[in-house]
Amino acid sequence: MANPTENLDPNPPTREPEDEVEELNGDEGEVEEEEEDDDEGEDDDAVSNPQSLKTESLFRRMRSSPVPVRVHDVIVKGNTKTKDHIIEAEVDGVREASTLQELLEASRVANSNLRALDVFDSVNVTLDSGPPELPGTTNVIIEVVESKSPLTGQIGAYTRAEAKSSSVEASLKYKNIFGYGDIWDGSVIYGCDNSAEVGMGMYLPRFKGLPTPFSSRLYLSTQDWLNFSSYKERSLGLSLGLLSSKYHELVYTVGWRNLIDPSRSASKSIRRQLGHSLLSALKYTFKYDQRDSYLRPTSGYAFSSTSQIGGLAPDSRSLRFLKQEIDLRCAFPFGFYNAALNLGVSGGVTFPWGSGYQNRPSSVPERFFLGGNSSPVCSLGGPSALWGFKTRGLGPNEPKRKGDDERDFIGGDAAVTAFADLSFDLPVRWLRERGVHGHVFACGGNMAKLTENEFRNVTAPKLLETFRTSVGAGIVLPTSLFRMEINYCHILKKQEHDKAKSGFFLTFSA
Amino acid sequence: MEGDQDTSGFTLVTRKPCFGLPTACPNCLPAYIYLKLAQLPFQLAFNSTFPDSEELPYFESGTYVAYNNEDGGVIEKLEKDGIVNLDSQLQSLPDYLSLKALIVSWLEEALTYEIWVGTEGVCASKIYYSDLPWVIGKVLFYKQTYLTKNRLGLTKENAEQREKLIYKRASEAYEALSTRLGEQKFLFEDRPSSLDAFFLSHMLFTIQVLPETSVLRRKLLEHGNLVRYAERLKSEFLEESSSSPSPPLHSFPSSFSGKGSKPKSKPKTEKSEEEKKFKKRARFFLAAQFLAVVIYVSVMGGGSSDEVEYEDDD
Hints:
CATH class of the largest domain in chain A: Mainly Beta
Strand order of the largest sheet of chain A: 6-7-8-9-10-11-12-13-14-15-16-19-20-21-22-23
Radius of gyration of chain A: 28 Å
Largest sheet of chain B: 4 strands, mixed
Largest sheet of chain A: 16 strands, antiparallel
Largest interface: A-B, 44 and 43 residues
Number of helices of chain B: 12
Oligomer: heterodimer
Structural class of chain B: mainly alpha
CATH topology of the largest domain in chain A: Porin
CATH superfamily of the largest domain in chain A: membrane protein fhac: a member of the omp85/tpsb transporter family
Structural class of chain A: mainly beta
Shape of chain B: globular
Distance between the termini of chain B: 50 Å
Shape of chain A: globular
CATH topology of chain B: Glutathione S-transferase Yfyf (Class Pi), Chain A, domain 2
CATH architecture of the largest domain in chain A: Beta Barrel
Strand content of chain B: under 5%
């Protein structure tokens, strides 16, 4: 869903102050009114000389010291459907501005916020003189043009944290039906991890006075893990975005989950997990990403922590678990060839809670699985990606039903991954201009089972001894939809039954 | 999803025990009795979160698995794969097939009707859905009731006629089996067979699980030799594993009645304790929610000015 905090236009077409701003006379402390100009723009040439002199004088004053001003009124025009308070709520900063400099900056921010609502075709913020009887005041006029066609469709590629892989999403959005800046959407999502989802969502920028947007999503999804773990997961649920800001996100999900095995080839652990369960979980994510780029970071660092608690229902029969994931990324630039060293470490642990938790296994969908075709440089959602290893290709595994030589990878209750990636520009200018660059990398990871008293057998030396590692090099092709890597990986260390081999691999990250 | 006791040897995975039976599911009980009649040592494991699975019960040994929806059923699959076979040389007998048809069609249909329609699913809820969250249990229960009525061909117009036909066939089956059995120990050649497993399962379920008001139960109890047959087999083959001997079958009418005797008050006490626990947890949950909302509003209300400034950074 659209998030106003992520779609800011740094240079919105705010009206230039020289057209409509009051000219303030700092010596006398009085305000001389300027003639108002229409939005269509009058011909300023007749008064341009004295006008431009006044404007220059104003700019000199603004450069030297703050120019005091008070906002008298915020006038909203052009909204036939959208409620006034929705627009006014996005421009709160304007009312609190006490100087002209603050007012201009707040106006820029307000313009960006309103555009980010995604329900207007255009937004103009104009500063006009206040009433003549109140010197030193200004009126802020907000003119919006509501979208003529509220129905829009889009197709895109995304990386969704809960899916831990890239996905293609096609959605239809109906905007501003009730005038609250509400966006309703229906979407179909197909993920690279054999998942499919149909959902309907609703997004409200303001909900009952809450400062952050509210979103809700009703979904029906299936994830097919038959080839990897001999089960299929079907879920019907409702997800509520309770808090969404730049650094924090709080989501509550309630859903009915069903694990089935139509192939009838599951291993013993998976067989025991088949059936219905009720998921009622709260997930809090703190994300701080100061890297200069998501797809090719060359400087900065990022930290992410996701905490999840399941079983938030009076019914003790719902799925009870705790899950914690942490990601840390750092990027160090070198001065030549736009080279940068990226380092990253991710870890996670999950455990059931409630009576008998020590003897109970964790739920398979909540466990960690490593491997796949996404790049660890881009992913910031817990331990998952590992170059050179196939999807769900390592970790605890069991033999499938007799007659099937394959093995089921049943996931781990704890997982850790680490990587180092050195990226650099290629000597060919044509490739450099298109952002195509090379990289060499090394990565490693491991998983362990902790539940059913297995945590007593987990020791650090044992984990290090069975640590999987790989190295490689490749070329990164950033496209408008995703980042693609063509890599050659060499597996340095793997364990018996791991699905990994040295060779060429493609990865996709959106 | 409760664990089993052993990772090697034979394991039978069934639905949970209830009503004094090692497994209260009428589809799982025949397999349990069959293995007991064959005197094959095995462990019992339970799956109580998949009431609509067609694979239960299943038998496993190492990586070998015999599911119930393969080869005609788990008993047939075990016989076919040579794990255990009580029916060798019996299948050729003319009576065998006709009795088998009687048990697995008429009696099975009558039992299905009685569980889901005749007794309005009262015992079905406890057998299949008691370990599932309430919402999921209710939806699955209604879904299964609807599917069962469809399978039995029941409509509003023909419900009464179908019921009469089902009970009539059940009566005739009981009569035929009673005549066939006489005072013998087993149905065939004085040795246990899969038909004994199916029929004993039907009888134990009908007597121990169905309420006293059940029409099918009343019809079955009219045949004293059948009740004695069930009693004998139960005490000889099934009570070896149980820690305490269960009361005789013919006395169950008094101990399992709905008229306020001890076993009835026990579930009632348990239910009220469960209810108290549930209410206490619900109150705690609501209080925690309220507290979280209050904290959130007070914290976010104070921090709102910080949150709006985030657009400045890029």
